Amino acid sequence: MLSVQDTSRIIEMAWEDRTPFEAIEHQYGLNESAVIKLMRSSMKQGSFKLWRARVTSRKTKHLKLRLEGIDRGYCPTQYKPRSK
Fold first, then answer.
1. What domain range includes position 39?
2. Which of 27, 43, 62, 73 would disulfide-bridge 48, Cβ 3.0–4.6 Å?
3. In a domain? residue 73
4. Which residues of 26-60 are buried (b: 16+ CB within 10 A; e: fewer)?
5. What is the crossing angle of helices 32-42 and 4-15, to 10°?
6. Which InterPro entries match (predicted)?
7. In a domain? residue 52
8. What does the pLDDT look like over 10-26, one tens digit per residue?
């Protein structure tokens, strides 16, 4: 059973273009089909369809389809420290 925070983070990771399904599986134990089921049950039907259309054509969502040399799961500027 996933916590609300874990579910929220998995959904966030699933929407990120550069986060592969393998990273979600490594961190949370959910393979691609389990992530799809989670997304389907957690989102409105229209949002789910948009997400599926988006990730279906993304090579970055699968490690085996990525170009050589891409070894990060996020954009280098994505997690900049916040200024106070």
1. 4-65
2. 43
3. no
4. eebebebeebbebbeeebeeeeeeebeeebeeeeb
5. 110
6. CHP03643
7. yes
8. 999 899 877 888 888 98
For the cut 60, the answer to whether the pLDDT of residue 66 exceeds it is no
Phi (first) and psi of residue 26, to 5 degrees:
-65, -40
pLDDT band at 1 (very low <50, low <70, confident <90, very high): confident
Structural tokens at position 53: 């259309």
What's the distance, CA 77 to chain centroid? 17
- Structure token pair of residue 36: 């799809």
60/67 Cα distance (integer angstroms): 8
User: Alpha helix locations (H) across 1-84?
Assistant: 4-15, 21-28, 32-42, 45-56
Please indicate, yes or no, whether the overall pTM of this predicted structure exceeds 0.90. Answer: no
What CA–CA distance (Å, rounded) separates 3 from 64?
Answer: 29
Q: Mean pLDDT across the chain, nearest whole number?
A: 80
Domain count along the chain: 1
**79 in a domain, yes or no?**
no
